[in-house]
Amino acid sequence: MGEFTTAVKYDMDVTHVLLNDDELGKISKEQRTGGWDVWQTDLVNPEFAAFAENCGGHGVFVDDADDPDEALEDAIAYDGPALVEILTDADPI
After folding, report:
1. Which domains does the chain have, with CATH numbers?
2. DSSP codes joined into one string, 10-41
3. Is the pTM of this model over 0.90?
4. How many other C-beta atoms are found inside a 10 Å radius of the C-beta of residue 82?
5. Nearest residue to 58 via CA among 28, 93, 83, 34
C-alpha cells in the first residue's frame, strides 16, 4: 500500500496486479501439506482497488479470476498509477 501512495505522489505510470486470496495462502498450503490443521491464516483485507482510488490512482476490482483481460487492459491504458485487484481462491487444487 505504501508503494502505491509513492506511485501516486510521483505520478508513476505503473500498473500493480494484486492477487487477493484473503489468507496467507502459502502458509495455509504448507499446513495442509504437512497434515496439520490450517490455523491463523485468514485475513481481513480492505478493498485494495478502492484504496487505490482513495489515493488518487485508478483501481479495478475483478471478482472472476477467469476474466481479468478487460480490467488489465483498462488499467494499463490509464495514464498514471493503477491497481488491479483480482479475487482468487487460496486453495484452487
Report:
1. 2-87 (3.40.50.970)
2. TT---EEEEEE-SB-HHHHHHHHHTTPPP-S-
3. no
4. 25
5. 83
